[in-house]
Amino acid sequence: MTKLADLRKRLLENPEVRTEYAQADAEFSLIEAMITARREARLTQAELAQKIGTTQSAIARLEAGRVSPSITTLRRYAEATGHQLRVSFS
C-alpha cells in the first residue's frame, strides 16, 4: 500500500500538479486565517455579517471557499474582527 506522503511526493514531481497544489494551499491558508480571526474576535458568522453589512450565508460561502472575495471584502472582514489586512507577494 502506498503511503499518503509517498503519493504526495510523487504527484508533486509534476510541475502542473505542483502549481495547482500551491494555489490550493494559499486559498486554504487564507480561509483558515479568516475563520481563526472571526473565532478569536468571538463573533458568529451572523454577528460578523451584521458588522460588515452582509448576510450570514455570504460569510458561510466565503469561509467555505465557494466564492473569491474582493480586497474590499477582505479588508472589511479584517477590520470587523479587529485585524488589519496585509497583502504580500513572496
Task: Quickly list its features.
90 residues, mainly alpha, 68% helix
Report on the architecture of this protein.
The chain has 90 residues and is mainly alpha-helical. 68% of the residues lie in helices and 0% in strands. It is built from five helices and no strands. It has helices at residues 4-11, 15-40, 45-52, 56-64, 71-80.
| Rg, Å, rounded | 16 Å
State the major sheet: none
* Beta-strand percent range: under 5%
What is the CA-CA span between the terminal residues? 37 Å
List unreliable stretches of 5+ residues: none
Portion in helices: 55-70%
Rounded mean pLDDT is 91
SS field, number of helical segments: 5
Give me the oligomer status.
Answer: single chain
- Would you report the number of β strands? 0
Overall shape: elongated
- Global structural class: mainly alpha
Order of helices and strands: HHHHH
